[in-house]
Amino acid sequence: DQQVKQNSPSLSVQEGRISILNCDYTNSMFDYFLWYKKYPAEGPTFLISISSIKDKNEDGRFTVFLNKSAKHLSLHIVPSQPGDSAVYFCAVGGNYGGSQGNLIFGKGTKLSVKP
Amino acid sequence: EPEVTQTPSHQVTQMGQEVILRCVPISNHLYFYWYRQILGQKVEFLVSFYNNEISEKSEIFDDQFSVERPDGSNFTLKIRSTKLEDSAMYFCASGVLTGGNSPLHFGNGTRLTVT
Predict the structure, then answer these.
(1) What's the gap in Å between the CA of A81 and the closest CA on chain B?
(2) Partner residue facing A100 (CB), from B48, B91, B108
(3) Do B103 and A42 count as a contact with CB atoms less than 8 A apart?
(4) What value does the mean pLDDT take over residues A76-80?
(5) pLDDT of A2-44, one tens digit each?
(6) What is the arrangement of strands in the sheet containing B19-24, beginning at the earlier edge strand?
(7) What is the distance between the alpha carbons of residues A113 and A80, in angstroms, rounded to a whole number?
(8) B46-102 tens-digit pLDDT
(9) Which residue of B lies nearest to A98 if distances are taken between CA atoms?
(10) Where are the beta strands (DSSP E) in B1-115?
């Protein structure tokens, strides 16, 4: 069962353009959403998060949008830079159904930003 | 910036052997986690630990697995009798709060290879 889906395994974008990464989730009880970036041979690095009471959170070039009715979130990177090339994981969490707040990850989207 | 450290970075073991993966979480964090990522698959939750006891575990975390916080700084994952399918990257993570309320910070992982 895939509670968190990232349907695009890869995305290629030109430097300076916008990168949009998408994520869908199934359980409306999730109330905390995060994006992690992962380089090869490293652990996931926290990028940005949003709670269910908001629909947008911005941090520099990174903006996360949350559409609760559609159970969808997205990450926008503007402008994209070659150093952004990595695998991006969507993760969801929350104190739901007795969970102690572990995070559930999507399969990841590999972003390649071309100079 | 404080970080989660994991040792060893790579562990090779024979099937049936016991392994201990070690982690030093960020010092003021209270919640500790183990995740794993089988090659090509998503990052999966194994277990969470708080106040010196397991707070939640997944179906993957069967009787062959155990965790321990033997002192004030280390957090270990033990696999008693390794199987081929235990080969994966194992990530330790810690957080000030649970993953439902604050981001978790991950170490760079231990690559476990079972032969």
Answers:
(1) 23
(2) B48
(3) no
(4) 98
(5) 789 999 999 999 999 999 999 999 988 888 999 999 998 889 9
(6) B5-7, B19-24, B75-79, B65-68
(7) 7
(8) 999 998 999 889 999 999 999 999 887 899 999 999 999 999 999 999 988 776 677
(9) B56
(10) 5-7, 10-13, 19-24, 31-37, 43-50, 53-57, 65-68, 75-79, 88-95, 105-106, 110-114
